[in-house]
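Troubleshooting entry. The earlier prediction with pyridoxal-5'-phosphate gave an output that would not parse, so I re-checked the input for stray whitespace and re-submitted. Clean input:
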Amino acid sequence: MDLSPATRAVALGRPERTPGAPVNPPVTLTSTYLAGAPVNYARVSNPTWEALEEVLGALEGGHALAYASGMGAIAAVVSLVPVGGVVVVPRHAYNGTTALLAERAAAGALTVRTVEADDVAAIVAAAAGADLLLLETPTNPMMEVTDVPAVLAGLSREDRRPVVAVDNTFATPVAQRPLEWGVDVVVHSATKYLAGHSDVLLGAAVVAPERADLLERLHTHRTLHGAIPGPMEAWLVLRGVRTLHVRLERASATAALLAERLTAHPAVERVRYPRFGAMLAVEVAGGADAAEAVCALVGVWTHSTSLGGVESQLERRRRHPLEVRSVPENLVRLSVGIEDAEDLWADLEQALRSAG
Ligand SMILES: *Cc1c(COP(=O)(O)O)cnc(C)c1O
C-alpha cells in the first residue's frame, strides 16, 4: 500500500507485529554487540537510531543517517568537499553553517562563494566548478526562498555538477521534499520541528536513493568522527516525529494568521513569511531597542533562541555576535507553536503596542 507521509510518520520504525511485541522500539543501551554480525560496535549503528532513520528516510524519500546535532550532520556534508574545494552557500544561511565554513576557509581547507538565496542565476553561476552547493530554504532567519528546481535545471547544463544539499530544517518534509526535486542530500536540525519539544539535540542527513556513494561516505565519516546521537535522544526525536504533521498543520495555520495581522500592524515595518511552514520574521519599528522590548514584554511566547517547539518562541537574532551582519538589527524571528492562535496574537500585540 502506498501510504501517505502522515501515516508513515506514525506507522514506521516499529517492532515487528508479533503477539506480545512492544508497540514502540526500545531504547537500546549498549556499546557493543555479540560477535558474528556485520554491526559489532555501537558507534557504527544502534537499533533505536535505525527506527528513527527508517521514519526520517521515508518522510524525505531517501536513506537517513542520524547525528549528534544538526551541526554534526552539516559538518559531515562539508567533509565531502576535497581539500582546496569550493562551497557555495547563501549569505543568510544558519549562522552555525556560515561560521563553520568560515572556520574551514580560515584553516585553508576550502573556499566559500556567497550568494543571495533568491538569485537563481547567481547561484548557478557560482556553482560552476564548485564541489558543494549547500542551500537552505527558507533561510534562517531572513526567510528567503530558493527556487531549487530552477537551480537544478541550470546546473544540468554544466558538465560537472557539485553535490547539492538542502537544509530543510525550517520547511520540514511536511512542506517540501528536496530529494524529489533531484537534490543529493537533505540535512536537518532535528532539534527543531522534527523533535518538536525543545528537549533534545539531534541531526540528520538524508541521502537520495541513487547516491549510494554519498551514503557510504557519510556513514564512514560518522563512524570515524563519532558525531553519533545517544539512543535516548533518537527515541525522543522518534516520539516527536509521530506528531509532526498535526503540529505543523496547527502551527502553519496560526503562522499564516499572524503574518496577515502583523502586516497590518503599525509597529511592524516588514513581515518576512514565505507562505508555508510555521516560521516567520518581523522587522519592528523603532530599531534594535524596540525589538528587544517586544521580546522582553511577551508572556505567552518564550524569549529564547532555537525554534520548532510546541511552545512559540521569539528572539532578536542580531543579539548573537555570530549572526550575519546584513540581518537587520530590528529583526525578530518567530517560531510558531501549537498554543491557541488568539492567545498568541493577543500576547504579541500587547508587546508590540507597549514597545513602541
Ligand atoms: C538550528 C539549526 C541548525 C543547527 O542544528 P543543531 O541541532 O543546533 O546543531 C542548522 N540549520 C538550521 C536551519 C537551524 O535552524
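This one parsed fine. The chain has two domains: 5-241, 244-355.
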